[in-house]
Specification:
disordered N terminus; mainly alpha; single chain
């Protein structure tokens, strides 16, 4: 059964964002359209990340680039969540903002642990294709119970992160999520696994909407995939960083 009224851990594929559509169009959403837009947005993310990366290793302080990038990306996501028709216009801004943020955290990680971000990228890409293959051969069925488990786990993880972030702002070190303890590493492993399985839910909902909704909905689908992929990359990078520190 759905959790908190959601049917997927990704807000872009929540029924709420699809059911309100009243615009009719001859051109319908297609897999190829989602792929092309996803590749275009990922290219923008990569270019923005490369820019921040270059600034960092040129001696420029990128703290504000990273922080502002994260803030703008959050604002874009919130706006798209309530005004989903704006995805077409805000997604490039979201991609740039996320790129600045990812470039910043990746540069910091690379400075301390050379090539660690590239390992995280490799793991993320590999996981994406493995999950796509598993979905296509129906090795893992995206049932209602499966969706409920992934949704519950996702909500719990983000709740932990939100509490940890609030405590961090208050300078209270109560949650060990940012440390290198076995608890923190275990939490990252679970989060990375949940992010991986969230890709299956994304594939499932895109598959169900193809041919039914107008072509502009490909932008919303692209946004959803970007959210999951970036989440998976961040979890992978954090996990590899903690393992590198501990071992």
């Amino acid at each position: 059964m759905p959790v908190f009224g959601l049917r997927t851990s990704n807000p872009a594929f929540n029924r709420y964002f699809w059911r309100k559509l009243k615009v009719y169009s001859k051109k319908k959403m297609s897999i190829n359209g989602v792929i092309v837009k996803s590749l275009a947005m990922l290219t923008i993310v990569l270019l923005a990340a490369s820019y921040t990366w270059h600034l960092f290793f040129s001696g420029v302080i990128i703290k504000w680039y990273t922080a502002i990038g994260m803030f703008v990306a959050i604002c874009c996501s919130l706006f798209i969540s309530f005004k989903h028709n704006a995805a077409k216009y805000l997604l490039p801004i979201y991609a740039i903002a996320k790129g600045l943020f990812l470039g910043g955290i990746s540069a910091y990680a690379h400075q301390r642990f050379p090539y660690l971000p590239f390992q995280a990228i490799a793991v993320t890409i590999t996981t994406f294709f493995i999950m796509l293959f598993l979905y296509r051969i129906k090795a893992i069925k995206v049932t209602r119970k499966f969706r409920a488990i992934i949704i519950s786990a996702s909500v719990t993880i983000f709740l932990f992160y939100f509490i940890g972030w609030v405590l961090w702002l208050l300078k209270i070190d109560a949650l060990p999520l940012w440390r290198t303890s076995w608890f923190a590493i275990g939490f990252n492993v679970v989060a990375a696994i949940v992010a991986s399985f969230s890709l299956l839910l994304d594939f499932y909902y895109i598959d169900k909407q193809v041919g039914r909704y107008p072509k502009e909905r490909e932008w919303l689908a692209t946004w959803g995939l970007l959210i999951t992929l970036i989440w998976l990359y961040i979890e992978t990078l954090r996990l590899l960083k903690k393992l590198a520190i501990r071992f």
